[in-house]
Design goal:
Blueprint (H helix, E strand, L loop, with lengths): L1 H17 L5 H13 L4 H17 L3 H17 L9 H18 L6 H9 L6 H9 L4 E2 L12 E2 L3 H11 L2 H11 L4 H10 L6 H8 L4 H11 L8 H9 L3 H10 L1 H9 L5 H13 L7 H13 L3 H14 L9 H15 L5 H6 L6 H16 L3 H12 L9 H11 L17 H12 L5 H7 L5 H26 L14 H9 L8 H10 L5 H10 L6 H13 L1 H11 L1 H5 L5 H8 L6 H11 L6 H14 L3 H9 L9 H14 L5 H8 L4 H28 L3 H13 L5 H13 L6 H7 L5 H15 L1
Antiparallel strand pairs: 1-2
Helix pairs in contact: 2-3, 2-4, 3-4, 5-6, 6-8, 7-8, 7-9, 8-9, 8-10, 10-12, 11-12, 13-14, 14-15, 14-16, 15-16, 16-18, 17-18, 17-19, 19-21, 21-23, 23-24, 24-26, 25-27, 26-27, 26-28, 27-28, 28-30, 29-30, 29-31, 29-33, 30-31, 31-34, 33-35, 34-35, 35-37, 37-39, 38-39, 40-41, 41-43, 42-43
Length: 774
């Protein structure tokens, strides 16, 4: 046991001895932690001393110097200053310092580099730098060390002295700068302000903002302009009111409300107010408040000076459009009211620009009132601003806005002058108002939209139809998105939209009504609107789109019985006409979308009323090609002789149908058809006759087969049993007999015999199968 403990102790000793020693850098870091965080100065002194030794042992002079400097710092903090240099050493340093200062004042030197070099000597050179800062005559220095020490005089150099004092940054140096600020010499004060740092000397810079010399004050303001400290607001405000544009720029970036306060302050100078307004025009954004609008408008409408009025309106024209869209109706109302009042006296482009993103009802009314003046005095600037206002459409308008835009639309003459700056030659002012009207129509009652354009004509009416279409299209697209695309499902569109569709259909020109109108009819799902689609079809001769026919078909699906009633009512005029138009005949052809029973019922009652062969032809065509029920075939056969003689294809189609359906009551009609003067009809009759013949032969064969004697069927059964005999000759005889009578029912048993390993039996079976299949 003792041996084990001794070994363990030795191991521990070896381990400790092998542990690496701390580096000088690590000891410095530990000393810094003890000094700054633990506030244990004694421990810090010990660690710095160890670090210096470790660095010296390692030959690292720089780190050793750093450690000794740290140790001296701790001693100073304890009030235990390190040993002072000898007088001889101190004198040597002072000589070097004076020589450095003296050489920096002679010849062309880099003033910043010189200041950095001088600052190394710290407080030793403050005694010379302060006179260099404020004196105007040479500064005697030989009295300090004797004439042999160095130069007898130093040359005054305020910029160099100020820079060096700023870099020394000791209390003594700062005190010298403070005394320099009291100098009556503005060049001294200018040298100091130019050398300051805004972060370290903000207090000095604040005092110098109010310097009586504008150039000095301007540099101080320029220095402070880089600060983000809102505590400078009052200082900058005072400077701005004295005419400093730099201070005004700072305010407009940081506190724009102060700039507005200066602009509206009648006690401020015209120059500072003008500068404030120009800053608001070019950059600053005041809060979107009604008070701010009133303030700028007040200056713009009745300011003391013409320049102030102009800049106030320009500032307003820049401020308001850059606000987010105002939600405060009072702001819109107040601005529009003042604009209207001003426009009654003069045409102001700035006021128009000020509201170029406001489309409130009062603003629209104000602009509408402006139209006669623009027509009477077509000023290029005013026209351009008016067009800019028109171009700034909003995403949504309240319902009341529609009436205001409509009033402007009606008030604008077709020949309204175009803005010279408007490069879009296809976009007239009327078209721009129509676009705004289309946006406003999104929330307006559909019946109001539909009837509001009936007094319009020409281009105005054409553009207004686009307004109706935009609203209608938005409704159909919403319905399509719910229905998964294609035609909107019945009932997916509010019936309130119907007036829009009917208006577009009723006023359709040569280009025809848009498909969206008929899509709306489908989505509304009112069966009675089949009549509208039929009337539209009847009115067209060319360019028939798919929309109306699709509307008839889809609405018929909603209620076929009601659709048949609508059809009957709307084809009466076609049946009664001796010469129906192409469009009217097309409406008869739409009977094909009715269910077979309904279509047959309508045609049964319509055929006697048809006065023209064209109408009869269409009715028979629908009946023959689309109505598939047997009753329709019977009706065709019954009225075959009433078919018009001209369309041979129709007669041929009827005969073909008789043959296809093997309608025996029509067999007698085949005879006359075989004698028809048209080859198409005769060919159809021959093919139909052949179909009847093939059918008749098939029936006879089937009857003969089914009437075969029971004895024959029994014989086949007996022969099939003989196939199982062990007598080869019996089996061969049975095979030949079954082949001779073509006994299909014996095929499975015959095929099974092919499994026997007997060539003669296999040959007999193959021969029998061939006979059965022939």
């Amino acid at each position: 046991m003792l041996t084990y403990l001794v070994a363990l102790a030795c191991l521990a000793c070896n381990t400790v001895a092998a542990a690496p020693q701390e580096t000088a850098r690590a000891l410095i870091e530990r000393g810094a932690y003890a000094e700054e965080h633990e506030r244990n100065f004694d421990a810090a002194l010990e660690l710095y001393a160890k670090a210096a030794k470790a660095a010296a042992d390692a030959g690292d002079a720089a780190t050793a110097t750093e450690a000794n400097a740290a140790r001296d710092r701790v001693l100073a903090r304890q009030g235990k200053a390190p040993a002072q240099a000898s007088p001889a050493d101190e004198q040597l340093v002072m000589r070097r310092a004076l020589a450095t200062v003296s050489s920096a004042t002679e010849g062309a030197v880099d003033i910043n580099q010189a200041a950095e070099t001088i600052a190394i000597f710290g407080n030793r050179v403050v005694q010379w730098l302060e006179p260099m800062l404020v004196w105007t005559e040479r500064i005697p220095v030989s009295s300090h060390f004797g004439s042999s020490f160095g130069p007898d005089y130093l040359t005054p150099n305020a910029p160099l002295a100020a820079l060096a004092l700023v870099r020394i940054a000791t209390p003594e140096a700062k005190a010298a700068l403070e005394r320099g600020l009291a100098s009556p010499d503005p060049t001294v004060r200018m040298a100091i302000i130019k050398s300051l740092n805004v972060f370290a000397h903000a207090d000095m810079a604040k005092r110098m903002v109010l310097d009586p010399v504008p150039a000095v004050s301007s540099v101080a303001i320029e220095l402070l302009a880089g600060s983000q400290d809102l505590g400078l607001t009052d200082v900058m405000d005072a400077a701005a009111r004295k005419g400093s544009w730099q201070a005004m720029e700072w305010l407009v970036r940081k506190v724009p409300e102060r700039v507005l306060a200066i602009a509206i302050d009648r006690g401020a100078t015209v120059q500072s107010r003008s500068t404030a307004l120009q800053q608001l025009r070019s950059g600053g954004r005041v809060s979107p408040k009604i008070e701010n609008v009133r303030a700028l408008l007040a200056i713009g409408l009745d300011g003391d000076e013409a320049s102030l009025r102009f800049f106030a309106l320009v500032a307003l024209s820049e401020q308001v459009p850059n606000w987010s869209r105002p939600q405060d109706s009072a702001l819109q109302e107040e601005a529009a009211k003042l604009i209207t009042a001003q426009l009654e006296h003069e045409l102001s482009p700035q006021l128009i620009t000020a509201v170029n993103r406001s489309q409130s009802v009062p603003t629209i009314k104000a602009m509408t009132a402006l139209i006669p003046k623009l027509v009477a005095q077509p000023d290029a600037v005013l026209l351009n601003d008016f067009n800019v206002w028109l171009n700034n459409a909003q995403g949504e308008y309240p319902p009341a806005t529609f009436d205001a835009w409509l009033a402007m639309y009606r008030a604008l003459p077709i020949d309204f002058p175009r803005s010279p700056d408007d490069r879009n030659t296809d976009s007239s002012a009327l078209a721009k108002i129509a676009r705004q009207l289309g946006i406003a129509a999104a929330t307006a009652p559909p019946d109001v939209i539909a009837r509001s354009g009936r007094s319009l004509e020409g281009e105005a009416r054409k553009l207004y139809d686009g307004v109706i279409l935009a609203r209608l299209r938005s409704e159909t697209r919403k319905a399509n998105s719910r229905g998964g695309g294609g035609w909107p499902p019945a009932g997916s569109i509010d019936r309130a939209v119907l007036p829009l569709a009917l208006e577009l259909i009723a006023t359709a020109g040569e280009g025809g009504a848009p498909t969206d109108a008929f899509a709306a009819l489908i989505g509304i799902g009112d069966v009675q609107q089949i009549g509208v689609a039929l009337d539209y079809i009847a009115s067209r001769e060319e360019n028939m789109p798919a929309g109306p026919a699709q509307a008839v078909e889809e609405l018929t699906k909603v209620d076929a019985k009601a659709a048949a009633v609508v059809f009957s009512a709307h084809i009466e005029s076609v049946l009664a006409s001796a010469a129906p138009t192409k469009g009217q005949l097309t409406t008869l052809g739409m009977l094909r979308v009715l269910p077979d029973e309904s279509a047959l019922a309508v045609i049964r009652t319509s055929l006697p009323k048809a006065r023209s062969d064209d109408a009869k032809e269409v009715l028979f065509s629908v009946l023959i090609n689309y109505v598939r029920i047997p009753a329709a075939t019977a009706f065709i056969a019954e009225h075959y002789t009433e078919m018009p003689s001209a369309p041979r294809a129709l007669r041929a189609a009827a005969i073909t149908r008789f043959g296809r359906e093997l309608y025996e009551p029509a067999i007698n009609l085949l005879g006359s058809a075989l004698k028809d003067t048209e080859e198409d009809v005769r060919r159809a009759a021959r093919e139909a006759s052949q179909a009847f013949k093939v059918q008749r032969e098939a029936l006879e064969e089937f009857a003969a087969w089914t009437s075969a004697s029971k004895e024959a069927r029994d014989s086949i059964a007996e022969l099939s049993k003989l196939l199982e005999s062990n007598n080869k000759d019996v089996v061969l005889g049975a095979i030949k007999a079954l082949g001779a009578v073509k006994a299909r029912t014996a095929l499975p048993a015959l095929v099974k015999l092919l499994e026997r390993n007997d060539p003669e039996v296999k040959a007999a079976v193959q021969d029998a199968i061939a006979k059965i299949g022939s």
